[in-house]
Design goal:
globular; about 280 residues
Length: about 280
């Protein structure tokens, strides 16, 4: 998969490299917590035989008489949890260099999980539809299609030995894979700063409309900026600007993670932990 290594020949390059590492580290912690929440809440509901609890997280996820939609969203959540837990591991250059076989096998599992998450979500949209109606169907449907394309391209370029293209697509896949996590992050930041202005219970408010694509398209733009900054060793201003953007993203993720962990993610995780006798 991808690496965040940069040339070490300038202060701007070092600043960009360390800001990238900081963002990956914070994202890893946050994504791990969210992945654990998905498994604790959604898989826990399956284990308890209470699938109706899914609707507490988001109305309309489970309903009687729609087994294909239920299966699709279950696959989406299970694969999404795997993506969040495995994704940051693939970005560690030392792991790829020292344990290439492990990197390849975890990469295959990661790409397969991405493929399943994308197709599972698309199956749910096609058979049941989203709570936000046609606009949300289209926005989330495009997200699923991009996830599938990125997964296929990541693996295809690796098989063909096109390592530069493989790493670029792996970064794009990672940026998409954290979309469901970032969706929550964006809502946390909005609720903290603006309350619930622009949000409705059926996700058809003004802010909800923006979020139909805002949880994944900006990620892809950030990746493209990163890729171009890595090639801009002779343009320190570009690298510094990219580093500042990454630092701002790191601060945002840190604050939003704290809010969601305390308010939403933490309690279901703690409830599933084995208690000492």
């Amino acid at each position: 998969m991808a690496t965040l290594a940069l040339p070490r020949n300038s202060d701007a390059g070092r600043l960009l490299r360390w800001s990238g590492r900081a963002l990956v580290a914070v994202t890893w912690v946050s994504a791990f917590i969210f992945g654990a929440y998905i498994l604790a809440f959604y898989a826990g509901a399956v284990a308890d035989g209470q699938l109706d609890r899914w609707n507490r997280g988001l109305e309309g996820l489970h309903g009687p008489g729609t087994p294909l939609a239920t299966t699709g969203i279950a696959v989406h959540f299970a694969a999404g949890g795997i993506l969040l837990l495995l994704g940051p591991v693939q970005l560690i250059p030392a792991l790829r260099a020292q344990y290439p076989a492990a990197h390849r096998w975890t990469g295959r599992a990661y790409a397969l999980a991405a493929l399943l998450a994308g197709t599972g979500g698309l199956a749910f949209i096609a058979t049941r539809g989203t709570i936000g109606g046609r606009a949300m169907d289209l926005g989330f449907g495009l997200y699923g299609v991009l996830m599938v394309v990125a997964a296929v391209e990541t693996v295809r370029n690796a098989v063909l030995g096109r390592l530069a293209a493989h790493r670029a697509w792996a970064l794009r896949l990672f940026a998409l894979a954290i979309g469901s996590w970032l969706y929550r992050m964006d809502y946390a930041a909005w609720f903290l700063s603006m309350g619930r202005v622009g949000h409705t219970h059926d996700f058809r408010g003004a802010f909800d409309r923006v979020m139909l694509v805002a949880f994944y398209l900006p990620n892809l733009l950030l990746v493209e900026l990163w890729l171009r900054a890595r090639r801009g060793a002779g343009r320190p201003a570009v690298q510094i600007a990219a580093a500042m953007l990454l630092a701002g993203a790191t601060l945002f993720v840190t604050v939003a993670t704290g809010f969601f962990t305390v308010s939403y993610w933490g309690p279901p995780i703690v409830a599933r932990l084995p208690l000492p006798m």
